[in-house]
Amino acid sequence: MTADNQDAAINDLNDFISRSPSSFHAVAELERRLGLQGFTRLDEGDSWRLEPGGKFFVIRNGSALAAFLLGSAPASRGFRLAGAHTDSPGFKVKELSGQAGSGGFRYAVEVYGGPIVATWLDRDLSLAGDGSAAGDPLKSALAAAMGVPVEDIGPGDLFLYSSEPGRKTGFSGEFFTAPRIDNLAGCHAVLSALEQMENPELGVGVFFFDNEEVGSTSLQGANSSFIRDMVDRISLVLEGDVQAAYQTRANSLLFSVDGAHAVHPGYQDKHDKAYAPLLNGGPVIKSHAGLKYATTGEGSALIEKIGRERGFPVQHFAIRSDLPCGSTIGPLSSSLSGVPTLDMGIPMLAMHSIRETAGVKDQAWMISLLEGLFKHR
């Protein structure tokens, strides 16, 4: 893969991040780009008519989205699925919290997920989300921005975010620093790989969940019925057989894409030396004996095989055995859907900071890996 392709991928990621200051905005951007690819929106409350080759998507809560490109093979042959999450750790504005005082207005916030709090201090911040009821000055500003009366502004979900744009850095532009790389980089990679698919034999489905940073237990989270609802419904509509839904899930494969901890030069002792991913060292396979990640040995071998075939390296991450391990959507999605799942992601530094750092090469390689996995039979 050429440097031009790598730069194009990271520039497109930067644009995607800038258009996605909240999970709601991320879904709006996904909807926009899918529309350009000929995908049409369906509503879960409507009756569906589906045909092989169809391209459609569904939105839940305005902050989660599932899209499918149906293949030429029967649905019961299985789908190639991928998942990422649209939310990032930070701070959410509490409703009705605006208070005048000390020559200005103050708004209460609550922690969302597990941000590195110190990195949020003395920064230029903005607000994004869906609706508001946080106080008169804010309501007035929102009403003006949206061109609606102040009384039309009601309760909503507003989050703080960094207004500083992403950029390439390093002596030769080899690194990329930006807010919300975790996990908009995963969303972008999944979307970009889907955009490259044409006339697949096996159908391809992608899921962009919300609320991963707070446990995924929501209608729009990975700890929900979203995957099973979509896969089963498609199977039943296309084949009209209850058994087909069970066959479809048994024959499918799911790729969970989320960030991986790169080894930090100042904290090398936090990694097992044999499992210390480097920036620009390739996509990372994540595994854990306690099943915080869903990758099996067979799945790991498949990722390595595709990396060799496509000419890029892959890396491995396993937590140091005496330290607790984080998790992601993979184990939840796998256990609820009954679909074998692989966990992987690009390496990054300062995960959960207001500003994270990734390698320029890794995003393009992750997109290529997903393209290979989508085509795997």
Notes on the protein architecture:
By secondary structure, the protein is of the alpha/beta class. It folds into two domains: 3-89 and 167-375, Aminopeptidase (3-Layer(aba) Sandwich); 90-162, Aminopeptidase i, Domain 2, CATH 2.30.250.10. The chain contains nine helices and 20 strands. It has helices at 3-18, 23-36, 136-146, 181-195, 226-239, 242-250, 297-310, 329-337, 360-375, and strands at 40-41, 55-60, 64-69, 79-85, 90-93, 99-101, 104-106, 109-112, 125-130, 157-162, 167-169, 175-178, 203-209, 253-257, 260-261, 284-286, 315-317, 341-345, 347-349, 356-359. The strands form five sheets. Strands 1-2-3-13-4-14-18-16-17 form a nine-stranded mixed beta sheet, with helices on both faces. A five-stranded mixed beta sheet has the order 11-12-20-19-15. A two-stranded antiparallel sheet has the order 5-8. A hairpin with a 5-residue loop joins strand 11 (167-169) and strand 12 (175-178). Helix 4 packs across helix 9 (360-375) and helix 5 (226-239) packs across helix 6. It is globular and about 65 Å long.
CATH topology of the largest domain: Aminopeptidase
pLDDT averaged over residues: 93
Q: Count up the helices.
A: 9
The CATH level-2 architecture of the largest domain is identified as 3-Layer(aba) Sandwich
Q: Sheet bearing the most strands, described? A: 9 strands, mixed
